[in-house]
Amino acid sequence: MGEKEISVSFDELNRMEVYCPKCSTGILLDFLAEKFFLPTDCSACGANLPDHICTAMNSYRHFFQNAKDSKARLKFRIKDHS
Description:
Blueprint (H helix, E strand, L loop, with lengths): L3 E6 L5 E5 L6 E5 L20 H19 L5 E6 L2
Antiparallel strand pairs: 1-4, 2-3
């Protein structure tokens, strides 16, 4: 199989799923939600999410919001190796 490249509009990357390092529960973040909040712990097991993960989620949220507010046209190019 050959390598393909997929172009994804930045506007479509508003949802992210982060997995708890202790119980592997997925925590879905929707950066366009009206009542958005950044979790600091897992709702299933109560484990604290590592600081570097919380920092990365917050940085992405700011990047997403700034790009959206500026009406910037961004695309991610993702390689599909299947």
